[in-house]
What we know:
The protein is about 40% helix and about 20% strand.
Amino acid sequence: MPVQRTLSIIKPDATERNLTGAINAVFEEAGLRIVAQKRIRMTRAQAEGFYAEHKARGFFGELVDFMISGPVVVQVLEGEDAVARNREVMGATNPANAAEGTVRKRFAKSIGENSVHGSDGEASAEREIAFFFNLAEIVG
Length: 140
Ligand code: ADP
Ligand code: MG
């Protein structure tokens, strides 16, 4: 399986509860390596741009408000099949449907405040990594 990189975000509901380390431990135990990481406060324009694909969805405004409600930790995860592996480790969008042991099953508060973001494919991973990081910030 190819070594890939994927974009992860630890969302405001998780930073608020001081869960950054607990969530990072889940990634590392799953074989994902954190090769870049920074804690930021997203601007409204940044959040709207990042989630542009969801602009037409009914939850878009709520999603943007939530993502700028507190600090987030944006990070690049590297490992074999990292895009799919991270989606597995995250669990389903709605924590009620997430498998045991996944980040969302363990930590998410609701379908909206669900603790983590992860890229959903190789093309989106590349685009999302470039949205937050320049190459010099990623050290594998
Ligand atoms: P995922 O994050 O699992 O890839 P989506 O890309 O479908 O899920 O949605 C992006 C984010 O929008 C979700 O992680 C969640 O925070 C929010 N979201 C999705 N569906 C809903 C919903 N029905 N109500 C409120 N927020 C939602
Ligand atoms: Mg998505």
